[in-house]
């Protein structure tokens, strides 16, 4: 618990102090956001607002994670230190953040709202995602547990849904495909949600708060401790407490960033932030064995993503007709006359309700097994 408090405190301080310093640097360099011409006209006043704010979030998380482990080691030289799961999470978050950073940087330098082309962006995400998935099936601990498994999971691995049903080799291939689908869905979901001041940041805070609790619970109910009434209720997650630490650090870093990102935003997270945050969400789902549960906990991101799919699909099938005034969904309500802050707060409420339902489902699964 003390490690969580130290990590969260450091991340909050780094983000709160680092963000305005980064804003000054970006303003001095003239690195401002390019606004879509086809977006809501009210957004044109945001043109030139500093972007790539996700750089501060990623930097705060990485620094806080390693400094926290150093402090804990100084207090207790017998502490475990960074774990395989924690380092894999850092790799996935930083890797996705770098792809987003390249995209943001090209947008700024070209002064156009297109950065990396679609193929280059997908290739970058695929390289990071494939490397993460392959490594996640390695690094067994003393109990033989690896950070990830070839089972599809909800609140834990589902025994009847093993991707290695036809052999270990095929299982690895299918797991790489499955994990990259989760990563792509999460990163695109956060990217689509990041359209209003503070919307994606606030919703992500709630998701990482949920994973902080899930990691703590899985740690207290870990298999092999001999304290549980039945082995059917324990969790075979490799490093749940370290995952909880990282989730708490993400939670706190985003709170610090939200101070400056809330309406009227002094800085945007950019693709640097949205891809890094989405990658982290996917990583938590895969490594905590809650892959399908993420669709509930991150329900707001799913809802917004589906609004785009519905809009594009219906537009093509109907030859020009639309379901929403504009997609993603948050812009539909803007054009309906809702103020930006009203949309953001109401969507935060929806995100909170979905997180509550997800946590309830997670706990209900444990109760049923008990």
From TrEMBL:
Pathway terms, separated by semicolons: Cell wall biogenesis; peptidoglycan biosynthesis
EC numbers, comma separated: 2.7.8.13
Broad EC category: transferase
Position of the signal peptide: none
Record's bilayer topology term: Multi-pass membrane protein
Reaction(s) this enzyme catalyzes, per UniProt: UDP-N-acetyl-alpha-D-muramoyl-L-alanyl-gamma-D-glutamyl-meso-2,6-diaminopimeloyl-D-alanyl-D-alanine + di-trans,octa-cis-undecaprenyl phosphate = di-trans,octa-cis-undecaprenyl diphospho-N-acetyl-alpha-D-muramoyl-L-alanyl-D-glutamyl-meso-2,6-diaminopimeloyl-D-alanyl-D-alanine + UMP
Major subcellular location class: membrane
GO annotations of cellular component type: plasma membrane
InterPro entries: Glycosyl_transferase_4, PNAcMuramoyl-5peptid_Trfase, PNAcMuramoyl-5peptid_Trfase_CS
Record-level GO BP terms: cell division; cell wall organization; peptidoglycan biosynthetic process; regulation of cell shape
Keyword ATP-binding recorded: no
PROSITE patterns: MRAY_2 (PS01348)
Subcellular location: Cell membrane; Membrane
Swiss-Prot/TrEMBL keywords: Cell cycle, Cell division, Cell membrane, Cell shape, Cell wall biogenesis/degradation, Magnesium, Membrane, Metal-binding, Peptidoglycan synthesis, Transferase, Transmembrane, Transmembrane helix
Binding site for Mg(2+): 191, 271
Transmembrane segments: 6-27, 52-75, 81-102, 122-140, 160-186, 198-217, 243-260, 267-287, 293-315, 343-364
Domain of life according to the entry: Bacteria
Cofactor(s) required, per the database record: Mg(2+)
GO-annotated molecular function: metal ion binding; phospho-N-acetylmuramoyl-pentapeptide-transferase activity; UDP-N-acetylmuramoyl-L-alanyl-D-glutamyl-meso-2,6-diaminopimelyl-D-alanyl-D-alanine:undecaprenyl-phosphate transferase activity
Family: Belongs to the glycosyltransferase 4 family. MraY subfamily.
Role description: Catalyzes the initial step of the lipid cycle reactions in the biosynthesis of the cell wall peptidoglycan: transfers peptidoglycan precursor phospho-MurNAc-pentapeptide from UDP-MurNAc-pentapeptide onto the lipid carrier undecaprenyl phosphate, yielding undecaprenyl-pyrophosphoryl-MurNAc-pentapeptide, known as lipid I.
HAMAP family: MraY
Protein name per the record: Phospho-N-acetylmuramoyl-pentapeptide-transferase
Name of the coding gene: mraY
């Amino acid at each position: 618990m003390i490690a969580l408090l130290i990590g969260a405190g450091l991340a909050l301080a780094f983000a709160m102090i680092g963000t305005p310093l980064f804003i000054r640097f970006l303003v001095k360099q003239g690195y401002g956001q390019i606004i879509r011409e086809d977006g809501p006209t009210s957004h044109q006043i945001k043109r030139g607002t500093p972007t790539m704010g996700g750089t501060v979030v990623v930097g705060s998380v990485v620094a806080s994670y390693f400094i926290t482990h150093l402090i804990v080691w100084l207090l207790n030289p017998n502490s475990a230190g960074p774990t395989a799961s924690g380092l894999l999470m850092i790799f996935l978050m930083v890797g996705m953040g770098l792809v987003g950073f390249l995209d943001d940087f090209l947008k700024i330098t070209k002064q156009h709202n297109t950065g990396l082309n679609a193929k280059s962006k997908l290739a970058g995400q695929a390289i990071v995602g494939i490397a993460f998935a392959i490594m996640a099936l390695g690094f067994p601990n003393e109990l033989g547990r690896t950070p990830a498994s070839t089972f599809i999971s909800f609140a834990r691995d589902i025994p009847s849904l093993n991707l290695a049903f036809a052999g270990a080799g095929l299982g690895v291939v299918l797991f790489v495909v499955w994990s990259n689908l989760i990563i792509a869905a999460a990163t695109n979901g956060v990217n689509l949600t990041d359209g209003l001041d503070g919307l994606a940041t606030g919703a992500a805070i709630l998701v990482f708060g949920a994973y902080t609790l899930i990691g703590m619970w899985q740690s207290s109910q870990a298999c092999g401790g001999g304290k549980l009434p039945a082995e059917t209720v324990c969790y075979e997650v490799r490093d749940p407490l370290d995952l909880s630490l990282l989730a708490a650090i993400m939670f706190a870093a985003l709170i610090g960033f939200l101070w400056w990102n809330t309406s009227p935003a002094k800085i945007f997270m950019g693709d640097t932030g949205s891809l890094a945050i989405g990658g982290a969400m996917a990583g938590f789902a895969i490594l905590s064995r809650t892959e399908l549960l993420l669709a509930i906990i991150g329900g707001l991101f799913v809802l917004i993503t589906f609004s785009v799919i519905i809009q594009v699909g219906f537009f093509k099938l109907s030859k020009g007709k639309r379901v929403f005034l504009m997609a993603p969904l948050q812009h539909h309500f803007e054009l309906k006359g809702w103020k930006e802050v009203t949309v953001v707060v109401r969507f935060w409420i929806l995100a909170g309700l979905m997180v509550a339902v997800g946590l309830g489902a997670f706990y209900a699964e444990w109760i049923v097994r008990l």
